[in-house]
Design brief:
The complex is a heterodimer of chains A (340) and B (316). Chain A is α/β, with parallel strands linked by helices. Chain A has 2 domains: 194 residues, Rossmann fold; 67 residues, no CATH class. Chain A has an 8-stranded mixed beta sheet with strand order 6-7-8-3-9-10-12-11, with helices on both faces. The longest helix of chain A is centred in the middle third of the chain and has 18 residues. Chain A starts with 5 loop residues before the first strand and ends in a 20-residue tail after the last strand. Chain B is mainly alpha-helical and 316 residues long. Chain B folds into 2 domains: 57 residues, no CATH class; 220 residues, MetI-like (MetI-like fold). Helices cover 76% and strands 0% of the residues of chain B. Chain B has 11 helices and no strands. Chain B is globular, with a radius of gyration of 24 Å. Chain B starts with a helix and ends in a 7-residue tail after the last helix. The chains are: A alpha/beta (340), B mainly alpha (316). At the A-B interface, helix 2 and helix 4 of A face helix 8 and helix 9 of B.
């Protein structure tokens, strides 16, 4: 086990939403830790609880959502119980967020300069003039051309890629310790995606900022992550460092996910493997393991007993939520044969 | 922007001609003739023909309209059939009180509607919100004449706090306080419907704005609720609200006609009712023209306001 102090430690997080059909649990028993400067990728299908996890950390859940239990320790402060007022001092300051939709995430009636300077005026106490200087610097840093003109432009004059750069500049403006990026490139053209990812990676490396990157793109994971947490139906089913995860995926879902991505060596015309069935509805979670209905290795036990996250032996912080490895968690047994 | 305005103003000319022509035709379709006013029990049908000829009513309708149009371009709206006073003078005399009444009502309505609409939006689906929505529904539903009579009954007759009508106390008064006293009830009637309508627009527009991604961005910056509401949400919410101000003005003109009648407010509205009763066509045409210009002007102002509020709108 590494002993570096955690910057962020999420423990047993459970987030619920009140709906007309009753209370649904979107995120359940989610735990992970993040060291300073580390990049963690949250991977999973739509509806697996990635974004809700991020919004829970930020305290930005919709009105009908709440953290039912669990803790989110950020530098030893529990964000779940922290009063709103103190939380506001952290948001945009020590923890910043980059959203998926650059086209709608900026306010259409305020200038770029107006929107970016708000954060530095609020958290760093800069004057308007200083803030303007800082914003121009930041815009230049994220590669926006003619920053001294763009600062007075409205968002509609910028392309999607440029707007996402502006959002990144906004996130960086107070030198946060943690950036949460929720699918920052999903809405962008493929060529722009690569540029934006490189920008995020370079800037976070330069400033030593830790990052939670939410994505469903395994290519992005391979490119960006130090560690990866795979989410399925509101739970983390496997967490490992990026090399381990790609070399030795353990959870049947992770393995299936890897197989469903085309590889450069896949012959053209071959059908891609897909995962049969569909993600269970939040209202009708299967008992036992949430993946058992779609799992090729499901056993009787999977139908009835909920697996816990198991720490795999001999691995550096490699955890998996699967009964197949129940024995592997004890020293001296192997597991590879099961999935051969 | 300049060339856009000129174009809009030029388009206004055929619009106004069309509106006044339709009005002219409708007025002439109404049964009865202005000449009836001049009849006495001893009048003969020859007298009717003579009076109609004097008033120019014996000519074909389109010729009459053409004459009206020609005079209009000379700044002449004709004379009242009723009392031979020039229509322009009559209108000028009545315009001031109406503008005072409508202007005050509009300001009062917005001062009420914007904060209450914002409050309801912020407390969406709470008892506060339901109260506001219910009150707004009531305000839109209650007719001007009914609300006016209730207010007169309660505040003028029963409590005796306020005058029943008119603009000043006849014989004495005419001071500022006296005028304000007379203004309160008619403004209350006229502002109620406008405020109720506007509250609903502001509320739904704010709820829509609060649900937008940029509000989440603003929250993620650590901004407080008041900055988010007043800086980020309100400016966006006002864009659709601005649109209905132009539409609102037409409703306000209609409401003013009824309200002025109830409170005997000496404005254009009261003149309208009097002129309809007297079949005073020339005065009615003048009033129609003013109303048409007002609505046209309000819509033009709305479009200009659009460009001011929303940076994405640019006119060329």
């Amino acid at each position: 086990m590494t002993t570096t102090p955690a910057l962020l430690q999420v423990g047993n997080l459970k987030t619920e939403f009140r709906t007309d059909q009753g209370t649904v649990t979107a995120v359940d028993e989610v735990s992970f830790r993040l060291a300073a400067g580390e990049t963690l990728c949250l991977v999973g299908e739509s509806g697996s609880g990635k974004s809700v996890t991020a919004l829970s950390i930020m305290g930005l859940l919709a009105d009908n959502g709440r953290v039912a239990h669990g803790s989110i320790l950020f530098e030893d402060q529990d964000l779940v119980t922290l009063p709103e007022r103190q939380l506001r001092g952290i948001r945009g300051n020590s923890i910043a967020m980059i959203f998926q939709e650059p086209m709608t995430s900026l306010n259409p009636v305020l200038t770029i300069g107006d929107q970016l300077s708000e954060t530095v005026i609020l958290h760093l106490g800069l004057s308007r003039a200083q803030a303007r200087e800082r914003v121009i610097e930041l815009l230049a840093k994220v590669g926006i051309p003619r920053p001294e003109e763009i600062v007075d432009d409205y968002p509609h004059r910028l392309s999607g890629g440029m707007r996402q750069r502006a959002m990144i500049a906004m996130a960086l403006s107070c030198a946060p310790k943690l950036i949460i990026a929720d699918e920052p490139t999903t809405a962008l053209d493929v060529t722009i995606q690569a540029q934006i990812l490189k920008l995020i990676r370079d800037l976070s490396a330069e400033t030593g900022t830790a990052m939670i990157l939410i994505t469903h793109d395994l290519g992005v994971v391979a490119e960006m992550a130090d560690r990866v947490a795979v989410m399925y139906a509101g739970q983390v089913v496997e967490e490992a460092d990026v090399f381990t995860l790609f070399d030795e995926p353990k959870h049947p879902y992770t393995i299936a996910l890897m197989r469903s991505v085309p590889h450069i060596s896949t012959p053209a015309g071959d059908r891609l493997a897909s995962i049969s069935g569909s993600v269970p509805s939040l209202l009708q979670m299967p008992t036992g393991c949430r993946f058992h209905e779609r799992c090729p290795h499901a056993m009787d036990r999977c139908r009835d007993d909920r697996p816990e996250l198991l720490q795999l032996s001999g691995q550096n912080r490699h955890t998996v939520r699967c009964w197949l490895y129940d024995d592997a968690a004890q020293p001296g047994t192997t597991d590879a044969k099961v999935l051969a | 922007m300049g060339s856009y305005l000129i174009r809009r103003l030029l388009i206004g000319i055929p619009v106004l001609i069309g509106v006044t022509l339709i009005n002219f035709l409708i007025i002439n379709l109404a049964p009865g003739s202005p000449a009836d006013l001049y009849l006495t029990p001893t009048s003969t049908s020859a007298d009717v023909v003579r009076v109609e000829a004097e008033l120019g009513l014996d000519q074909p309708i389109f010729v009459q309209y053409f004459h009206w149009l020609v005079r209009l371009f000379h700044g002449d709206l004709g004379v009242s059939f009723q009392n031979r006073a020039p229509v322009t003078e009559l209108l000028a005399e009545r315009l001031g009180p109406t503008l005072l009444l409508m202007g005050t009502s509009l300001v009062v309505a917005y001062l009420i509607a914007v904060p209450i609409g914002i409050l309801a939006a912020r407390k969406k689906n709470s008892p506060t919100d339901y109260t506001v929505v219910g009150a707004a529904f009531l305000g839109i539903s209650v007719p001007h004449f009914f609300l006016g009579l209730v207010l007169i009954y309660v505040f003028a007759l029963e409590l005796g706090w306020l005058p029943t009508g008119n603009m000043i106390t006849l014989g004495r008064g005419g001071g500022f306080a006296d005028r304000v006293n007379h203004l309160i009830l008619p403004v209350a009637v006229l502002a109620t419907a406008t405020a109720a309508n506007m509250t609903r627009y502001v509320r739904s527009s704010m709820i829509d704005a609060f649900g937008q991604d940029y509000i989440r961005t603003a929250k993620a910056k650590g901004l407080g609720l008041s900055t988010i509401t007043n800086k980020h949400a309100l400016r966006n919410a006002l864009i659709p609200v601005v649109t209905v101000i132009g539409i609102d003005l037409s409703a306000l003109i209609g409401g003013a006609i009824v309200t002025e009648q109830i409170f005997q407010w000496p404005g254009i509205g009261l003149l309208t009712i009097q002129s309809i009763g007297a079949r005073d066509y020339s005065v009615l045409m003048g009033i129609n023209l003013i109303a048409a210009v007002a609505v046209f002007g309000a819509n033009l102002l709305t479009d200009i306001a659009y460009a001011v509020v929303d940076p994405r709108v640019a006119y060329a």
